[in-house]
Amino acid sequence: MSEFHIFGSAVAAQFRRLADGELYAVQAEDLFEKYLAAFPEGSNPVFRVRTEHDCSCCKHFIRNVGHLVSLQGGEITTMWDVFDLPHPYDKVAARMSEYVRSLPIVSIFRTKEGRFGQPFSNELREGETSPIRWTHFHCDIVGRHRSNRPDADRGAVTTNVGVFRRGLEEITLDALNLVIDLINENNLYRGAEFRPAVQTFMTLHMEYPRAGTQAEKDVFVWSNVRNPAALFRNTVIGTLVVDLSDGMDEDAAVRSFEKKVAPENYKRPTALITPKMIEDAVAKLRDMGLESAIERRFAKLADVSVNNVLFVDNSVRGTMKDGIAGLLMEEVRAAPPIITNPTPISMEDFLTQIVPQASSINLLVQNKHLANFVSVTAPVHDDAGRLFKWDNGFAWSYDGDATDSIKQRVKRAGGNVDATLRVSLAWSNFDDLDLHVLEPDGNHVFFGNKSGKLDVDMNAGGRVSREPVENICWAGRLRDGEYRVWVNNYAKRETIDVGFTIELEYAGSIQQFSYAKALPGGQNAEVMLMTVRSGELIRAAVHPGLVGGSVPQEKWGIKTETLVPVDTLMASPNHWDGQEIGNKHWFFILKGCRNPEPARGIYNEFLKGALEPHRKVFEVLGAKTKCPVSEEQLSGVGYSSTRKDEAVVVVKGDRINKAFHINF
User: Fold this and answer.
1) pLDDT average, residue stretch 420-443
2) Which of 151, 290, 384, 492 lies at a 20 to 30 A Cα distance from 325?
3) What is the β-pairing status of strands 421-426 and 500-506?
4) What b/e string do you get for 394-410 counting C-beta neighbours within 10 Å, with b at 16 or more?
5) The whole model's pTM is what?
6) Which of 113, 148, 183 is the last residue of a domain?
7) Are 463 and 506 found together in one domain?
8) Cα–Cα distances in angstroms (integers) from residue 287 to residues 281, 321, 385, 394, 558, in the given order
9) What is the pLDDT of residues 603-620, one digit of tens each?
10) Could you tell me if 601 and 621 lie in one domain?
């Protein structure tokens, strides 16, 4: 068979191509016998005592290399996938390829040998003067495939395949999703650190051809065994997922996990929400007829009775509940007001003395009001029962899912909000941000040297919060000189809800400055340089990386540092219909103000007493049942009775055209 050299060269070239990547061995113990049987009848004649292709050199090659395959691109390619061969080798190659493909993969290919087979050999027959040249299968072993410890290399990968396969088969998608939820709710110690591993394995888990053939499963497992997530089942976070997949109680599984990774004195930052707790909360809602009440939306003007507002612009009065349609108002042609010297007035006097004269109100929306943006929310179903302490289904949500101000958050945390000078830091994730101030005398105020001035330090290990604040304040006369303020991210734990806000209060005036970017772990963000002369704060030079002060900004369709028409002025729903339940807020609902983000409609502090035992569930429920974005909504700027604040308004009416400085 003089054309065998074509076959041998084609197989050698195929090996070189496949050897550029990983090679895998299938379970084939009788491969050379299959090779000989693959020749069509009459195409492998007997030469001397054996058939012509029954060669010891080729036998060595086939038994050691002929069972190798490649999985590049997720497809099986064999050594025998060579084409355009002369007869009978085309038939032999096709049959060998089909047979090798039918066998299971059992290991990677590793060997100490540098070569199998040889290109040719010469035989000098008796009585002949010229040798006969025989060609053979052959290949050289190079790169990763050659090893001084092939058995150990193969064993290690085969063990990993077993771990990977068990993880794919035994771990459930429900358990993976549950662990992701626990991490997102900060219910796992170092959860954010484990999130990438869980998500990577989850991707593999969903791609695994669970309903496919065994061959398809084998190809997937061996193709991906080098992925670090292949050993997920044997990691500490993997053991938690395995326990949950095996049906272990959620709380018990998490406790078992925490024993392995958490320090002995670790306390979970938020209580674990178990399926049983959710079932109990849902049962309570069902008993009280409140299942539909948890569905929330943005409130709209037509929802609100004119009897529950303090002022309504005539241009929108007709769209309100209980209002009169079609009212017309004559245009007021008064001279533009001068707002450089607005008349000071309390909110109570403004409501009783000024609002009754007003046909229009314009609010000067300032940068310091950026955290005051608020939306009123309502139940989706008009006949829904009452979730809240007051006798209506309405509520409110300040920007950032807060129901009150930074100052109020500091006060709740035990910070001094009545000092001469206050610098507060607020952010919205589990990172451990730290506020630092270098005083004129060189004293460095921070968590390691509180100096009686740093009185709130949150997320510093142990219990953490999604509404953390830090507070540094100075009482009495201020020392002259410069105060450098900066923020350091001591421990970065999350990549969501990044950035922070600085609130500066001095002499009753509050200003806020925001840093919108993610602050990498261990890095600083310069905030401001404050200058004090003769005991008075005379300047606060804010770093360019923060926005605030008097630079106009766009928010919710409103441009700050401009006068914006007020559609309606109302008290918070807990003070409607003669009720006085809890802190009072005043909402200036602005024309064209649209909250572009889903708003939280349920807060634990709003819930009626019967739902108090289920606060943990409602904390999660409130985050998952936000009001979908709506074009029609009641949004604007709010002011709280618990916070010393101020606003400038311009009021017009038949007998008034004047600016006022309202003190809350």
Assistant:
1) 93
2) 384
3) antiparallel
4) bbbbbbbbbbbbbbbbb
5) 0.45
6) 148
7) yes
8) 10, 31, 11, 21, 43
9) 878 888 888 777 777 777
10) yes
